[in-house]
Specification:
This protein is α/β, with parallel strands linked by helices. The protein has one domain: LarA, N-terminal domain (Rossmann fold, 3-Layer(aba) Sandwich), CATH 3.40.50. It has 13 helices and 15 strands. The protein has helices at 12-22, 29-32, 87-98, 126-138, 155-161, 164-171, 205-209, 231-234, 250-256, 260-267, 306-320, 335-342, 360-373, and strands at residues 53-54, 77-83, 107-111, 143-148, 174-177, 187-190, 201-204, 212-218, 220-222, 227-229, 275-279, 282-284, 294-296, 299-303, 353-357. The strands form four sheets. It has a nine-stranded mixed beta sheet with strand order 1-15-2-14-11-8-3-4-5, with helices on both faces. The protein has a two-stranded antiparallel ribbon with strand order 6-7. The protein is globular, with a radius of gyration of 20 Å.
């Protein structure tokens, strides 16, 4: 005889969906009281009326420990999500939800996405950059340098075109174009074991010498072989086209290789970011990285785990209508993400990603994205 419907067990995921359906904040109160209470630890706290709400199911299983400084495969990766079209509000709200200050008293290098001078989401939006710079200063960064290497132009010209040079004078930060690093001593040749780079890759020493590296990336596909370009791919802007001035062209090697997506992940072994902010207020759902069909993504993400950020970002792209190469298999089977997991650069399962939200709209949006994540 079949079990009576009223006695059937309810799964954790269905329980969360029930909470969302019935109003969330009222029924979920006992559950939410068990969640971690977070607050910004910088000099200027950013008040929010609601506490973060975990969306994704959390599990863990024993796996080998990764390299130092990365997220262990048994750990939970927290990703803050704010549903908004106001970038300033979104960036501040996401960092408030994340509740960490890894840059106080440190020399910070901020890596935007300045691959070209095309407007967002092709490149970092000026409001996102300005808000993040102001927040890092409020959080106690001892110095701040915005640095990049563009793929389609010289980054100095890109920064000039996007108003970043004028912004630097206004807000008091430095700018650096990695293309201007002409000496071999400005680069370190990184040769990770098992790498698909033929002879390693040159990595900018200013990144390695920074006391904290912060990334801000965009939400878009990559039609030149990367399949998608978010946090992991943004790291390629720290890899030299040359080892100094001229000689072997490492970018030609990357873009001609059938292992391009694996090499993108391997470039991330050179450093560990202190913080990653993904601007998904607008997104491309085809082509990329410089052009494509633009839609509103209505969100800002923040976290410290590159794999988790890219996984949530790719889930959001699929939700928004992306149907390209990176939509064909599960998210953790994508080459960039799978290789990053192999290298111990982040969590190894979508079930270990905890999405933090602070309001009912963001909570409902996160639940929709979670369907594509899981």
């Amino acid at each position: 005889m079949s079990q009576p419907k009223s006695n059937r067990p309810i799964t954790r995921r269905n329980f969360l969906r029930l909470l969302l359906t019935l109003g969330g904040s009222v029924l979920a109160t006992p559950f939410l009281q068990a969640c971690e209470r977070l607050s910004l630890t910088g000099p200027t706290a950013i008040p929010t009326p609601m506490q973060p709400t975990p969306i994704a199911t959390i599990t863990s299983s024993p796996t080998p420990s990764p390299s130092p400084g990365s997220t262990a495969a048994t750990d939970v990766a927290k990703v803050a999500l704010v549903k908004t079209r106001d970038r300033a509000t979104g960036v501040r709200g996401a960092l408030q939800l994340l509740g960490t200050n890894p840059i106080r008293g440190k020399q910070v290098l901020l890596k935007p996405n300045f691959n070209s001078a095309d407007p967002s989401p092709a490149s970092t939006h000026p409001t996102t950059l300005k808000t993040l710079v102001e927040l890092l200063q409020e959080m106690g960064a001892s110095s701040l340098t915005v640095a990049d290497r563009s793929g389609m132009d010289h980054s100095r010209q890109v920064m000039q075109s996007l108003g970043v040079i004028a912004m630097a004078r206004e807000l008091g930060f430095e700018t650096l174009s990695f293309e201007d690093l002409q000496s071999e001593n400005d680069w370190e040749l990184i040769q990770p074991p098992g790498s698909h780079w033929k002879n390693g890759f040159p990595f900018a020493r200013p990144v390695l010498n920074a006391q904290a590296v912060v990334q801000t990336c965009c939400l878009k596909p990559h039609r030149f072989g990367g399949h998608f370009t978010m946090s992991l791919k943004n790291t390629v802007g720290m890899v030299g086209k040359y080892m100094g001035h001229g000689g072997y062209n490492y970018m030609n090697e990357l873009h001609a290789s059938p292992y391009q997506r694996l090499m993108i992940a391997e470039a991330n072994t050179a450093y560990t970011p202190a913080l990653v902010v993904l601007d998904g207020v607008e997104a491309f759902i085809d082509q990329g990285p410089d052009t494509g069909t633009k839609v509103f993504g209505d969100m800002i993400l923040a976290g410290t785990d590159r794999v988790a950020i890219d996984a949530v970002g790719l889930a959001a792209l699929r939700f928004l209508g992306y149907r390209g190469e990176a939509a064909r298999d599960s998210i953790f089977q994508q080459d960039q993400i799978a290789r990053a997991v192999e290298l111990g650069l982040g969590v190894d399962s979508p079930k270990k990603i905890q999405i933090l939200t602070g309001d009912s709209e963001s909570e409902a949006y996160a639940a929709q994205i979670q369907d594509y994540l899981l």
